C-alpha cells in the first residue's frame, strides 16, 4: 500500500532532532500503552500485519502529527473492535467513565 | 455524518489509554501483573547493554564474530538475547571501507532484544524519510563525518527481519577485556549513527 507511512525519501520533514539521555518512556501513559499492546499481541488475538494495517489506514494528517504510541493507541482500539473483543459502544462507555472520573 | 451519535474520544491521550486499559482489564484480555512485568522488563532489563555485549564478544572472539556474521540470530542467542522483534537478525559489519546505517522507513522496526525500545527520533518521520535519501547528511547531524571513499550502506528493516551494526573496534583497545570493550559501545553506534570512540 502506498500510504503516508511509506516515508522513505520524502522531503520537507525537517531535521532529525535526537534527544540526549532520552528515557525509555516519556510519560506514564506511554508505559501503559506499551504494556497493553505487548500483552494483547502475545495473546494472539491479532497479528503484526493486522496491527500495522490499522496504523497504515490512519488519516495521513493524523499519522504525521501524532507520536508512535498514539499510533499504537489508534491501532489497538481499531484491531480489538475488528476482532470483536469489544465494540465501539463499550469503548465509548470506557472513555466516558475515565473522563467523568477525572472531572469528579 | 454517520459518526454523529458517537462520543468523541477524550482529547487527553492519557485518559484514552486509561480507558482502553480499563476495558481490557475488565474483559480479562490483559492482567495487571503482566502489564507491570512487561514495563519492568523493557524499561530496565532489555536495552543497548545487550547489544554492547554482542559487539564486545565479536571483537574479542574471532570464531564468535564469524558465527555472528554468518547467522546472527543463534549467535546472539548464545549470549541469552532473543525473542520479540529479534526473531530473525542480520548483523552488518562496519569496516574501513563500509559504514552501515539502520532505518525502518515504513514503520519503526528495531532490534529490541539487543537495543531495547527505539528512541523517538528513530520512530519519527524526518529520520525515516532522510536516512535513505541523504544518509551522509543525516550522519553529519549526529556529528559523524564519513570519508568520501567509504561506502555508506543503509539497511531498511522489515516486520520480519532486523539488522544490527557491528561497529569498528577503535584503535588502542587491544588490551581491553570484554566488559571494558562493552562499556565503550553505545546504542547509536549499533544503529550506525555514531562511531565507537577509544578508551
How would you describe what is shown here?
Chain A is 59% helix and 0% strand. With 104 residues, chain A is an all-alpha fold. Chain A has a single domain (28-103), classed as Cyclin A, domain 1 (Orthogonal Bundle), CATH 1.10.472. In chain A, helix 1 runs parallel beside helix 4. The longest helix of chain A is centred in the last third of the chain and has 16 residues, at 88-103. Chain B has 2 domains: 11-44; 48-191, Nitrile Hydratase, Chain A (Alpha-Beta Complex). Chain B has a two-stranded parallel ribbon with strand order 1-4. In chain B, 46% of the residues lie in helices and 11% in strands. With 199 residues, chain B is mostly helical. Chain B is built from 11 helices and 4 strands. In chain B, helix 8 packs across helix 9 (135-141). At the A-B interface, helix 1, helix 2, helix 4 and helix 5 of A face helix 1, helix 2, helix 7 and helix 8 of B.
Mean pLDDT of chain B: 93
Strand and helix order of chain B: HHHHHEEHHHHEEHH
Elements of chain A, N to C (H/E): HHHHH
Radius of gyration of chain B from CA coordinates? 20 Å
Low-confidence stretches of chain B: none
- Helical stretch tally of chain A: 5
Largest sheet of chain B: 2 strands, parallel
How is the largest sheet of chain B built, in terms of strand order?
A: 1-4
Low-confidence stretches of chain A: none
Helix content range of chain B: 40-55%
Strand content of chain B: 5-15%
- Strand pairing plus helix content of chain A: what structural class? mainly alpha
Structural category of chain B is mainly alpha
Amino acid at each position: 500500500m502506498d500510504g503516508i507511512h511509506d516515508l522513505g525519501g520524502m522531503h520537507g520533514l525537517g531535521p532529525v532532532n535526537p534527544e540526549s539521555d532520552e528515557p525509555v518512556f516519556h510519560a506514564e501513559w506511554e508505559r501503559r500503552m506499551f504494556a497493553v499492546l505487548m500483552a494483547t499481541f502475545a495473546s494472539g488475538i491479532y497479528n503484526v500485519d493486522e496491527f500495522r494495517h490499522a496504523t497504515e489506514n490512519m488519516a495521513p494528517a493524523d499519522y504525521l502529527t501524532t507520536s508512535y504510541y498514539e499510533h499504537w493507541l489508534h491501532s489497538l482500539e481499531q484491531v480489538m473492535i475488528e476482532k470483536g473483543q469489544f465494540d465501539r459502544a463499550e469503548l465509548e462507555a470506557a472513555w466516558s467513565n475515565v473522563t467523568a472520573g477525572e472531572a469528579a | 455524518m454517520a459518526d454523529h451519535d458517537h462520543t468523541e474520544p477524550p482529547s487527553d491521550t492519557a485518559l484514552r489509554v486509561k480507558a482502553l486499559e480499563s476495558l481490557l482489564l475488565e474483559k480479562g484480555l490483559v492482567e495487571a501483573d503482566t502489564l507491570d512485568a512487561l514495563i519492568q522488563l523493557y524499561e530496565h532489563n532489555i536495552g543497548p547493554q545487550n547489544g554492547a555485549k554482542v559487539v564486545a564478544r565479536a571483537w574479542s572472539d574471532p570464531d564468535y564474530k564469524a558465527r555472528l556474521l554468518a547467522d546472527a540470530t543463534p549467535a546472539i542467542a548464545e549470549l541469552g538475547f532473543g525473542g520479540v522483534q529479534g526473531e530473525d537478525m542480520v548483523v552488518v559489519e562496519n569496516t574501513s571501507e563500509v559504514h552501515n546505517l539502520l532505518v525502518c522507513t515504513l514503520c519503526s522496526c528495531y532490534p529490541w532484544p539487543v537495543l531495547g525500545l527505539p528512541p523517538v527520533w528513530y520512530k519519527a518521520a524526518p529520520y525515516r524519510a532522510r536516512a535513505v535519501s541523504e544518509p551522509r547528511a543525516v550522519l553529519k547531524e549526529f556529528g559523524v563525518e564519513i570519508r568520501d571513499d567509504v561506502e555508506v550502506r543503509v539497511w531498511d528493516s522489515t516486520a520480519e527481519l532486523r539488522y544490527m551494526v557491528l561497529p569498528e573496534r577503535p584503535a588502542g583497545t587491544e588490551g581491553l577485556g570484554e566488559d571494558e570493550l562493552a562499556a565503550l559501545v553505545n546504542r547509536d553506534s549499533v544503529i550506525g549513527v555514531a562511531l565507537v570512540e577509544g578508551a
